[in-house]
Amino acid sequence: MQGTTLATKAQNQVVAAIKQAQGVAISAVSQVSETIGNVLPELPRTPLFDRVPDPAEIVATSFQFAEQMLETQKAYTLELLQAISPVTGKIVPSASRKPVRRSAKAKA
Q1: What pTM was computed for the model?
Q2: What is the extent of the structural domain holding 76?
Q3: Alpha-carbon span 79 to 67, nearest angstrom
């Protein structure tokens, strides 16, 4: 269980660092975009303009698909673990069982 706790702490730290870096990047991009937006003239609308998909819609759709795939893979992996449990139950210590400690004689 301690390994899981350490892994969770490390994961949380990684996520926090990524979020902080993303915040810095968004701030920088916003400043640059605002500067360019003030200089860039309006572009004329063409029929092709209406065919260009909304970037936010593309992102939402792509992440929805990615979430579905991740959930599918999670379900598959958990079912696979269940399928091999007759073997793993005999060789992998369960979280509910206490590990067997070897005596000094057994170690020698």
Answers
A1: 0.64
A2: 52-91
A3: 18
